Automatic annotation (TrEMBL):
Coiled coil: none annotated. This is CFAP61 dimerisation domain-containing protein. Residues 255-373 form the CFAP61 dimerisation domain. PANTHER family: CILIA- AND FLAGELLA-ASSOCIATED PROTEIN 61.
Length: 467
């Protein structure tokens, strides 16, 4: 919402007393658009096609979310030239920006400049039409740390911080539900009324969990929805036992979801963008790189070259944690998402191949036929079967491999030895046990069965009987 600052007084952003985060409770002007979903986007796009494309009016966008950049590309795609688009970026403050990658941010800003889009940085929305006649916005004023500006526009798009809609807040409050900046939930989706559940970015966890920075917005929305659906299933399925009263959460721990956060879009400069990452707090990439347990970062390609930029981040356990792609050529998004949480040994010794310069292009490497099996929808089930073989005791009185590894680490802790990895003698012992216990033979048999059963989709792999 505009702060209401009169720019004719020469006030700067720091001198403004009103917070730019306050809610707008009136009726917004008819050419001000707040896009929250595909329906809102369709209405806005149709309005722009009807009223702006064939006129000389300008479009003004305000905010720093990734929606700003995808909207600019959409407007240019339907025929609005970049010279008639203005982008105003508010101060980031503690936020990490749309991409959290300086290289990608630089590339997109360069693409906007090439498209003649005018960009204003570190400005705060002050007034529409100087505070009068708010039926339709024609001018928008902004304050900054130095000189204010006033811009003309035929359509205004707001992509500032997401806040709770006033009508939603009033409905929650009138229902006597606890609201603390967001709708308050426990770890089992319950509000203070046990008959009402909640989920999504509108919600937050109770303060007793001491995790104010974490909410459902930090996790994969599809996974959160699945867990909520499972919790509600007992209320509607007559074949299931009735739900018992909410269990008492003695540990007061928030639930942890495993699926990655995924963002894919089409950006200015005709860039295809994909980010797949572990659910985590919004921390600048530069700060993450300084942490001792950051892991390994590998990059191929170039922002401006062919085939494009590909950044892969493996955690301290050598499993894929973040995938960032930016390319002017389309790439198999669904396949790359499958790489998340995959150990590098499943990917043909990825780290070693990269270190000896056998990989110069991750796009090409991950399209190799030898990796097609990891993209199969049954591959996660196969990995679970392999894990079961390693955690199951071969005989009642014989420890499993997992138990032996756990025992080795516990002995090191007992003797106060710092041990992040096993030594050579321990590794050799485990290799011998792996063979002697029959686990190696069992895994090979399962692998051949997996390839034989799915040979229709994986014809590139050899199997018994072919030679």
């Amino acid at each position: 919402m505009p702060t209401g600052t009169d720019i004719s007084t020469g006030m700067t952003t720091t001198e403004t007393e009103t917070s730019p985060d306050r809610r707008f409770v009136g009726t917004p002007p008819k050419n001000v658009f707040i896009v929250n979903d595909a329906f809102d986007a369709g209405i806005a796009l149709n309005w722009v096609e009807t009223n702006v494309v064939h006129s000389e009016g300008r479009i003004l966008l305000y905010g720093y979310r990734i929606d700003v950049f995808t909207s600019i590309q959409a407007f240019m795609t339907i025929g609005v030239p970049g010279s008639r688009i203005d982008l105003v970026l508010p101060p980031l403050g503690c936020e990490v920006g749309a991409f959290n990658d300086p290289d990608i941010t630089k590339a997109i800003m360069s693409a906007l400049t090439s498209a003649d889009v005018t960009v204003y940085s570190d400005y705060v929305l002050a007034q529409w039409n100087d505070g009068v006649n708010l039926e339709e916005v024609t001018t928008v004023s902004f304050t900054s740390a130095h000189k204010p500006i006033s811009l003309e526009c035929q359509a205004f798009f707001g992509f500032y911080k997401k806040q709770v809609d006033y009508d939603a807040f009033k409905a929650i409050n009138d229902a006597c539900l606890v609201f603390d900046g967001r709708l308050v939930l426990d770890a089992n989706f319950h509000t203070n009324d046990v008959s009402i559940r909640g989920a999504g970015p509108l919600t937050k966890f109770q303060r007793i969990y001491h995790s104010d920075q974490w909410s459902h917005a930090n996790f994969n929305c599809k996974e959160v929805g699945i867990q909520l659906a499972n919790a509600l299933l007992t209320l509607f399925d007559p074949t299931l036992e009735p739900e018992s009263p909410p269990p008492r959460d003695l540990l007061k721990l928030i639930p942890m979801y495993r699926s990655p956060k995924i963002c894919g879009c089409f950006l200015p400069g005709e860039y295809h963008y994909l980010f797949v990452g572990k659910p985590k707090l919004n921390t600048p990439l530069e700060a993450l790189r300084t942490q001792s347990d950051f892991g390994v970062e590998m990059v191929t390609g170039s922002i401006y070259g062919d085939p494009g930029y590909f950044r892969l981040h493996l955690n301290q356990y050598k499993s894929v944690e973040d995938i960032t792609c930016l390319s002017k050529k389309p790439f198999p998004t669904s396949n790359l998402v499958c790489l998340y949480n995959m150990h590098e040994r499943f990917l043909n010794n990825l780290i070693y191949r990269f270190k000896v310069n056998l990989i110069s292009d991750f796009y090409k490497f991950f399209q190799d036929k030898g990796l097609m099996a990891v993209y199969h929808d049954r591959y996660p089930d196969f990995r679970e079967e392999v894990r079961e073989l390693l955690v199951t005791r071969p005989e009642p009185n014989r420890e499993s491999l997992e138990e032996k590894i756990r025992q080795m680490f516990e002995e090191d802790i007992t003797h106060r030895r710092v041990c992040r990895q096993l030594n050579e003698s321990q590794l050799q012992y485990l290799k011998e046990e792996f063979v002697q216990s029959g686990a190696k033979r069992a895994i090979e048999t399962r692998l051949l069965s997996f390839l034989s059963y799915n040979t229709y989709h994986l014809p590139m792999y050899a199997k018994p009987g072919m030679v």
